């Protein structure tokens, strides 16, 4: 025979079992409904593979964009190198011109002919050229910096895409 | 050149010859472009030199022959420059002609190869 307290304990445990049971049934029904809403396994596989294909295509496009950017950067570096050399040469010429006296003969090579030129004019021309080259170098530096930033962001995007593809492939492997 | 994603097509010996020929023509086309650029620059320099000669009041000009500068009378320098200009212009015309011929041949080969391979072949440059 149960004592009064035991009966209360028994009733309360029965009560909780019923509540938990109801929750369990509800949860099971919910899971079944969710599973019914999912497409068949075959369809799911094709969905993930088409998803994967899209991602791979996107990755290919991004890689192409990156290689274009890298070519552009290389081209800019080449131009920068050329301008730097020219700047050095012109600065050397300017130093030499500064050493000359006012009555010195200065010649300029045009085609196969050495033509006499005024010292002041030669000086002005060289200074103008130096100004122009310096401005071009500044512009090129800014362009290269901008391109390198774009390149870095592209690299990050590619890395993220690769990770997504890997995770998708891993999921596919498990399935 | 990147490859297309088309279907498999059999590549015959003749196709291979056409592809090789296209490659050779393309290389020559780029060489010609560089040569034309140099010829044009030379022509411009000669034009500038003859203009400077008109303006100068010197009777004896320092004229470059190979690695050295020789003192040559102004009239003779003018004649020499005109001769060089003529030769350069003729060379430039020849180069332009060859370039046109190469472009025509390349267009013909493109037509043949694209007709057979569709998007399995890419003959365009980046």
TrEMBL record, chain A:
Recorded GO CC terms? cytoplasm; prefoldin complex
InterPro entries linked: PFD_beta-like, Prefoldin
UniProt entry keywords in alphabetical sequence: Chaperone, Coiled coil, Membrane, Transmembrane, Transmembrane helix
Q: Pfam families annotated for this entry?
A: Prefoldin_2
Has keyword Coiled coil?
yes
Reply yes or no: does the keyword Transmembrane helix apply: yes
Q: Which GO terms describe its molecular function?
A: protein-folding chaperone binding; unfolded protein binding
TM ranges = 20-38
Name one process (GO BP) from the record: response to cold
Question: What start-end ranges are recorded for coiled-coil regions in this protein?
Answer: 49-76, 130-164
Gene3D superfamilies cross-referenced by the UniProt entry: 1.10.287.370
By what name is this protein known?
Prefoldin subunit 6
Gene name, per UniProt, is LOC100777779
TrEMBL record, chain B:
Which residue windows are coiled coil?
Answer: 22-112
Described function: Binds specifically to cytosolic chaperonin (c-CPN) and transfers target proteins to it. Binds to nascent polypeptide chain and promotes folding in an environment in which there are many competing pathways for nonnative proteins.
Q: Does the keyword Metal-binding apply?
A: no
Regarding protein family, the annotation reads: Belongs to the prefoldin subunit beta family.
An example of a GO molecular function for this protein is: unfolded protein binding
UniProt source species: Glycine soja (Wild soybean)
Q: What is this protein called?
A: Prefoldin subunit 4
Report one GO cellular component: cytoplasm
- Lineage, highest ranks first: Eukaryota, Viridiplantae, Streptophyta, Embryophyta, Tracheophyta
Quaternary context: Heterohexamer of two PFD-alpha type and four PFD-beta type subunits.
What keywords does the record list, in alphabetical order?
A: Chaperone, Coiled coil
**Single GO BP term:** protein folding
Q: Name one Pfam family in it.
A: Prefoldin_2
């Amino acid at each position: 025979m149960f004592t009064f307290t035991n009966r209360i304990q028994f009733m309360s445990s029965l009560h909780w079992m019923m509540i938990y049971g109801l929750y369990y049934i509800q949860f099971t029904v919910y899971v079944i409904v969710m599973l019914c809403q999912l497409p068949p396994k075959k369809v799911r596989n094709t969905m993930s593979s088409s998803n994967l294909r899209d991602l791979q295509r996107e990755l290919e496009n991004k890689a192409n964009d990156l290689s274009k950017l890298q070519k552009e950067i290389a081209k800019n570096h080449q131009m920068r190198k050329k301008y730097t050399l020219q700047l050095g040469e012109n600065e050397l010429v300017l130093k030499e011109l500064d050493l000359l006296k006012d009555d010195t003969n200065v010649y300029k090579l045009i085609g196969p002919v050495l033509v006499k030129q005024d010292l002041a004019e030669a000086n002005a021309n060289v200074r103008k050229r130096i100004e122009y080259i310096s401005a071009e170098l500044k512009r090129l530096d800014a362009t290269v910096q901008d391109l390198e930033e774009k390149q870095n962001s592209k690299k990050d995007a590619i890395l993220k895409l690769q990770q997504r593809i890997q995770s998708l492939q891993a999921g596919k492997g498990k399935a | 050149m990147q490859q297309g994603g088309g279907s498999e097509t059999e590549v015959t010996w003749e196709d291979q010859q056409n592809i090789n020929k296209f490659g050779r023509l393309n290389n020559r086309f780029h060489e010609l472009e560089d040569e034309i650029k140099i010829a044009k620059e030379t022509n411009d320099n000669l034009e500038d030199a003859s203009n400077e000669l008109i303006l100068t009041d010197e009777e004896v000009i320092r004229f470059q022959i190979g690695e050295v500068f020789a003192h040559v009378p102004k009239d003779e320098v003018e004649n020499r420059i005109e001769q060089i200009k003529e030769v350069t212009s003729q060379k430039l015309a020849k180069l332009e002609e060859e370039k046109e011929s190469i472009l025509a041949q390349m267009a013909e080969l493109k037509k043949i190869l694209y007709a057979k391979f569709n998007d399995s072949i890419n003959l365009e440059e980046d």
